[in-house]
């Protein structure tokens, strides 16, 4: 019988038998599972019970009795506590094995495909300091404006100066800004009292160009005294900064960005290149955070598509047009759709910037626009989809498959929703062909993949 009369602070000696997809160790005491931070499979630990629920509990490591040879012992544990690097305690080759196994298991459990031959994960060369974007919360800690990251599942700020997986110039801008804002006594927003001005600092940096954009997310358009001088100094110290913007977010919710942007310095975008094409990226638009690995991801997507010069292509969930514009020279026409209007403006501008005349982008949801294109008689040979974490909408899948493309190439940042969508494509007579995970997020539990479906 499963024993459930555990109490807080009970201690047990146990072996860690597994890892959850978010990087917690799994321990079973009398069949009852506990999830334990900073514990790796194969490790023997003395575990202290923190919390007990009906069917599982949480524990913490009081002492390691035996550590795993795959453990990174030098990791600053704040990176685990905040989730900045929730796999950072595991050596990189083991991270890749675990991510591969996760995709195999999801295809088995959700899509009923035992032992699917998922290709080995394309690992990154740069496994640290690779992120081209930071979104850093700001809070008053002991009376001082502080930048850092929230402790997992909370809004309690842990002060961080070295963000470990972000480009060092991004960290330097955040630190310099924090120090200067302290000198002019800017107050961070307080979620309880709803007072204070600054909520987040968002920094983007083009991987190939080095161009930087700094966005201050604040509660009002009125700059507190001294901020204009701080920003003047910042752009002098960091000549790579080409854009400084203010984003107004008055809400009480947890969305980082509000709807209104105001340019304080320079342009309302920065530029970067991907696979040799130039892209304008505006503040609200999506741009993959690991450019080097995203280039390998897109290259794999093109290889899976077997493109020919006569092909008509749909680039669904197109963002600023990266997937469609990088391949436009190799095909007849590209049609893209995307829900964020500024991203579509970027895509249209990016087509011009790269002298591309055969790419057309529309604002709207993929699930609304794909049925319209079906009605209009657009007949794509290949459809690329790159949805957010929630995956594809059923209405989109029905309309997309009804246009009868020979191949559908699916770029996914969430293997769980991808596995669900595999069943939906199979119901419409498309068979899963190749699955290639690509690690865009070293040191974290996130995994990206590209897959192809072939018409039966
Ligand atoms: C993972 S990003 C991919 C963007 C682009 N393909 C790239 O590689 O940079 C997903 C994109 O889908 C957009 N999006 C979210 N929901 C959408 C929907 N229902 N219809 C169309 N686009 C949507 C987001 O704004 C975002 O730009």
SSE arrangement:
Blueprint: E1 11-19, E2 25-29, E3 32-36, E4 44-52, E5 57-66, H1 78-81, H2 92-109, E6 133-141, E7 144-150, E8 157-159, H3 168-183, E9 198-205, E10 212-218, H4 227-237, E11 241-248, E12 260-266, E13 269-274, E14 277-282, H5 291-305, E15 312-316, H6 322-327, E16 333-338, H7 341-353, E17 359-363, H8 366-376, E18 382-385, H9 394-402, E19 407-412, H10 415-427, E20 430-438, E21 448-455
Parallel strand pairs: 3-5, 10-11, 15-16, 15-18, 16-17, 18-19
Antiparallel strand pairs: 1-2, 1-4, 2-3, 4-5, 6-7, 6-9, 7-8, 9-10, 11-12, 13-14, 19-21, 20-21
Helix pairs in contact: 2-10, 3-4, 8-9
Structure commentary:
This is 23S rRNA (Uracil(1939)-C(5))-methyltransferase RlmD. It is an enzyme of class 2 (transferase). The active site is at 413, 413 (nucleophile). Pfam families: TRAM (PF01938), tRNA_U5-meth_tr (PF05958). Keywords: Methyltransferase, S-adenosyl-L-methionine, Transferase. With 456 residues, this protein is an alpha/beta fold. It has three domains: 11-69, Beta Barrel (OB fold (Dihydrolipoamide Acetyltransferase, E2P)); 133-273, OB fold (Dihydrolipoamide Acetyltransferase, E2P); 290-455, Vaccinia Virus protein VP39 (Rossmann fold, 3-Layer(aba) Sandwich). The protein contains ten helices and 21 strands. The chain has helices at 78-81, 92-109, 168-183, 227-237, 291-305, 322-327, 341-353, 366-376, 394-402, 415-427, and strands at 11-19, 25-29, 32-36, 44-52, 57-66, 133-141, 144-150, 157-159, 198-205, 212-218, 241-248, 260-266, 269-274, 277-282, 312-316, 333-338, 359-363, 382-385, 407-412, 430-438, 448-455. The strands form four sheets. Strands 8-7-6-9-10-11-12 form a seven-stranded mixed beta sheet, covered by helices on one side. Helix 7 (341-353) links the parallel strand 16 (333-338) and strand 17. Helix 2 packs parallel to helix 10. The protein is globular, with a radius of gyration of 24 Å. The protein starts with 10 loop residues before the first strand and ends with a strand. The mean pLDDT is 97. The structure holds S-adenosylmethionine. Residues 286-288, 317-319, 322-323, 337-340, 343, 365-367, 386-388, 413 line the site of S-adenosylmethionine (SAM). S-adenosylmethionine binds at residues 286-288, 317-319, 322-323, 337-340, 343, 365-367, 386-388, 413.
